């Protein structure tokens, strides 16, 4: 039972002056913070360090792109074939839709949530600058995509070597595949990140990215299909690939490394086409990066 | 149907320039058809490619996905659904109203352009265009119901819907013949073939199987969505 205030002895309560101490330890600086943001974003793209539910989709996609590669290798070895039944870059382009789903679902995870819960200003209250933020997020998404595509290529390559297939041919093709993977990881990703940065709603971001990638790819495919390359031999319809980031990369890689065959082979039409396609790819990446920078100027 | 819920849903779906984004779909279909109608290639092949592959195969599922999840998943996502659920309205009425709006919008943005671009490409011969229009009509309704259900059932409705519409129907369906039996797109094609008479639309499912499946999916998805909404728990984002 406490005493009424006025009867309490006056000298029992003491405020100790412990002083205000500033932090005097080492400061790790901007570069360290940017690196941390990069690692955390890369982990977030695969749902690592998050709940089990957010790991489902990334690892499902990783499984979907890797398991067919294992099957191809197993079949090739079991039937004692001299080479793999697929080309390395061709394998990537046939799975580009699945890779796009990963991109569409994870790019908003990296960008939209920060906007929605207004954590972006918190980042900028740290030593990190706006450019660092964009750079870290961009690099994280590109790396996540690259890892996703490098995994099946490594499975194919390792399987081919273990199966005693031609070393130099496979190494060359594997390097072509890696080059294609880098392009696939950079060009569509940059466009997707711009779309993701415009909306704080995750679901809307996913739909918008996938809508753009799938619709542009479908339009280009149909345009090439209806131009009847078998009869007319005309390359004009190939120019429609310019609207679709994934088809653009596929055409560029096929023409650059002289890959692919069949009537529906996508390729950049001739030397001029090659130059234009390469320029458009560069413009897409640089333009998207610029747009991202200007987007975060006024957050 | 509840007119107030319908009006609010419609505004959430088309308001603030979002309607303009949806307008891209019909514009694209008409643009491609307009360009293709100038070419000298075989008109029937063109129609099947554009209306079948581009329209029914890609644009309609995507439109159904955006609209079907847009009418309810966004509200569940930002938590504003509680204000609607707190009203003295049976949950199934909310679902049917939202489904009606979703189906209407999907039809508006897909059936009309399909009919127009079909007429542009192929005229009125053989009923091919009519067939595709009916196919888009039924497929649009089925997709709307299916994706509305996904919107209620999972927080990752858009991704799950993409997985079904693009991966299952086009990639898996290309390699595994059995997968085509469970594809809204193929059911739509079966209906198109039945309406047009057999003019090489190329359906892999018989008409007799497609109609019951379409009905079961549309009605079943609506019922299931009502049940799911009746016991909805609002979870935080992980």
How would you explain this protein's 3D organization?
The complex is a heterodimer of chains A (299) and B (238). By secondary structure, chain A is mainly α. Chain A has a domain at 29-216. Chain A is built from 11 helices and no strands. In chain A, helix 1 (29-45) crosses helix 6 and helix 7 (167-198) packs antiparallel against helix 10. Chain B is mainly α. Chain B has one domain. Chain B is 77% helix and 0% strand. Chain B has helices spanning 3-14, 18-22, 24-37, 43-70, 73-78, 81-85, 91-122, 128-153, 157-175, 184-196, 207-230. In chain B, helix 3 packs parallel to helix 7 (91-122). Chains A and B meet through helix 2, helix 4 and helix 8 of A and helix 3, helix 4, helix 5 and helix 9 of B.
Rg of chain B computed from alpha carbons, rounded to a whole number of angstroms = 18 Å
Q: Indicate the proportion of strand residues of chain B.
A: under 5%
How many H/I helices of chain A? 11
Unreliable stretches of chain B (pLDDT < 50, length at least 5) are none
Give keywords.
heterodimer, A: 299 residues, 11 helices, 71% helix, B: 238 residues, mainly alpha
Topology:
The complex is a heterodimer of chains A (299) and B (238).
Chain A: H1 29-45, H2 52-78, H3 88-94, H4 96-116, H5 120-124, H6 130-162, H7 167-198, H8 202-226, H9 229-232, H10 245-256, H11 270-297
Helix pairs in contact in A: 1-6, 2-4, 2-6, 3-7, 4-6, 4-7, 4-8, 6-7, 6-11, 7-8, 7-10, 7-11, 10-11
Chain B: H1 3-14, H2 18-22, H3 24-37, H4 43-70, H5 73-78, H6 81-85, H7 91-122, H8 128-153, H9 157-175, H10 184-196, H11 207-230
Helix pairs in contact in B: 1-7, 3-4, 3-7, 4-7, 4-8, 4-9, 7-8, 7-11, 8-9, 8-10, 8-11, 10-11
């Amino acid at each position: 039972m406490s005493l009424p205030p006025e009867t309490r002895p006056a000298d029992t309560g003491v405020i100790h002056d412990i002083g205000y101490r500033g932090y005097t330890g080492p400061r790790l600086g901007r570069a360290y913070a940017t690196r941390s943001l990069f690692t955390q974003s890369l982990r977030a793209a695969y749902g690592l360090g998050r709940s089990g539910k957010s790991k489902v989709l990334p690892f499902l996609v990783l499984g979907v792109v890797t398991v067919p590669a294992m099957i191809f290798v197993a079949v090739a070895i079991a039937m004692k074939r001299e080479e793999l039944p697929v080309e390395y870059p061709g394998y990537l382009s046939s799975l580009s839709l699945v890779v796009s789903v990963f991109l569409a679902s994870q790019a908003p995870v990296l960008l939209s949530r920060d906007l929605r819960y207004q954590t972006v200003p918190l980042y900028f209250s740290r030593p990190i600058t706006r450019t660092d933020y964009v750079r870290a997020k961009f690099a994280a998404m590109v790396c996540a995509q690259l890892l996703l595509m490098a995994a099946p290529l490594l499975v194919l390559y390792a399987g081919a070597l273990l199966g005693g297939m031609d070393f130099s041919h496979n190494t060359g093709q594997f390097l072509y595949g890696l080059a294609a993977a880098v392009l696939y990881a950079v060009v569509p990703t940059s466009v997707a990140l711009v779309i993701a940065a415009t909306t704080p709603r995750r679901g809307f971001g996913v739909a918008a990215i996938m809508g753009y990638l799938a619709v542009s790819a479908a339009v280009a495919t149909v345009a090439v299909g209806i131009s009847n390359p078998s009869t007319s031999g005309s390359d004009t319809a190939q120019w429609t690939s310019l609207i679709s980031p994934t088809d653009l990369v596929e055409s560029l890689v096929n023409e650059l490394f002289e890959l692919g065959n069949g009537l529906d082979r996508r390729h950049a039409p001739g030397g001029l086409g090659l130059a234009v396609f390469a320029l458009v790819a560069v413009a897409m990446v640089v333009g998207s990066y610029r747009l991202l920078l200007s987007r975060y100027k006024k957050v | 149907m509840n007119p107030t819920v319908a009006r609010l849903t419609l505004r959430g779906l088309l308001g603030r320039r979002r309607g303009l984004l949806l307008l891209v779909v019909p514009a694209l279909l008409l643009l491609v058809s307009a360009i293709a109608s100038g070419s000298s290639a075989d008109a029937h092949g063109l129609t099947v490619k554009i209306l079948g592959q581009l329209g029914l195969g890609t644009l309609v599922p995507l439109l159904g996905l955006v609209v079907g999840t847009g009418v309810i998943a966004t509200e569940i996502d930002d938590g504003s659904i509680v204000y609607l659920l707190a009203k003295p309205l049976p949950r199934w009425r909310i679902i049917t109203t939202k489904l009606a709006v979703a189906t209407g919008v999907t039809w508006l943005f897909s059936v009309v352009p399909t009919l127009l671009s079909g007429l542009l490409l192929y005229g009125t011969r053989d009923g091919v265009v009519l067939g595709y229009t009916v196919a888009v009509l039924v497929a649009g309704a089925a997709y709307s119901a299916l994706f509305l259900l996904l919107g209620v059932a999972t927080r990752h409705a858009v991704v799950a819907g993409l997985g079904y519409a693009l991966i299952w129907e086009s990639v898996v369906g290309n390699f595994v013949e059995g997968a085509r039996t469970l594809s809204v797109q193929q059911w739509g094609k079966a209906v198109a073939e039945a309406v047009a008479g057999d003019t090489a639309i190329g359906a892999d499912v018989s008409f007799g199987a497609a109609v019951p499946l379409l009905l079961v999916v549309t009605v079943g998805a609506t019922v299931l969505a009502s049940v799911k909404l009746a016991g909805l728990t609002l979870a935080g984002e992980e």
